[in-house]
Write a structure and sequence with these properties.
Strand content: under 5%
Number of strands: 2
């Protein structure tokens, strides 16, 4: 009897050990096998970013003390959009992190060896239209910038040049134009999109800005002059491309590699 009891105890301990291992395995699967709808997250964030960009342009245009209240209200709208559960989850998903609020989650992936009952339930899950397989990603998706953001970026470039031309015709100097709130807001958004397109450049710019502020460095007279000359060069080149001689459309001007290089150089000079 004593030997039989010992066998039962030993067998029970082994069963408990196997059960614990199985539970741990299922726990890991629950944490790692969550299937998210990255396409839906990208679409939501693109639409939200367009609204945010439009509000930021409005904020930048509301200058002076008289518009302080309106400017504050618009800024609050921007901040509110950026902290919604959906926006937070979309941002996390696009950074390949789990959504903390549970949005844009399609389903949990089934274990490799499903039990018979689970196998029978599989057709029901497949019939759910919300659980469709992910569509193939477009070629530009991996770069981090969506078609909507590309359109917004191109539009911002055109708006910046247009606004600067208006300010210049109004008698403002290059330095004054660069400090104009509308220009500053649009350039900030443009740089944000460029950072998403080329990850790392924004962080590097922030680090350089912090170092410069610690050392008390300011933009030199030569740098201000270079910025003004580059602005004139960009405007002259844009006018040339739009002329009947070349016949470029506005979209083709914004897509021109030389134009993009000059705009990028201008942004780098302002950092």
């Amino acid at each position: 009897m004593a030997e039989a009891d010992a066998d039962r105890v030993k067998g029970g301990a082994e069963i408990l050990k196997q059960s614990a291992a199985g539970m741990a395995l299922f726990g890991n699967m629950d944490a790692a096998a969550q299937e998210v709808d990255k396409e839906a997250a990208q679409k939501f964030k693109d639409e939200a970013d367009v609204k945010i960009a439009a509000l930021e342009v409005e904020v930048a245009a509301l200058t002076g003390k008289d518009n302080k209240k309106a400017r504050t209200e618009k800024s609050k709208e921007v901040a509110a959009l950026k902290v919604t559960p959906e926006y937070v989850d979309a941002t996390k998903i696009l950074a390949d992190k789990p959504p903390p609020n549970g949005n844009f989650v399609k389903a949990a992936a089934a274990p490799a060896a499903a039990a018979p009952a689970e196998a029978e339930a599989a057709p029901d899950a497949a019939a759910d239209p919300k659980k469709k397989a992910d569509k193939p990603k477009k070629a530009g998706a991996a770069a981090g910038i969506s078609p909507a953001e590309r359109k917004e970026l191109d539009g911002l470039k055109d708006e910046i040049i247009k606004k600067k031309k208006e300010l210049k015709e109004g008698g403002m100097s290059g330095g004054q134009i660069n400090k104009d709130e509308a220009i500053v807001g649009m350039v900030a958004r443009m740089n944000e999109l460029k950072e998403k397109e080329n990850p790392g450049c924004l962080d590097a710019a922030k680090s350089e800005k912090k170092e410069s502020s610690k050392k008390g460095k300011k933009l030199s007279k030569e740098a201000e002059q270079e910025v003004g000359e580059l602005e004139r060069e960009i405007e002259e080149y844009r006018t040339k491309l739009l002329s009947p001689e070349f016949g470029y459309s506005k979209k083709e001007v914004l897509s021109d590699p030389d134009m993009q290089d000059m705009v990028k150089k201008l942004a780098d000079l302002r950092k």
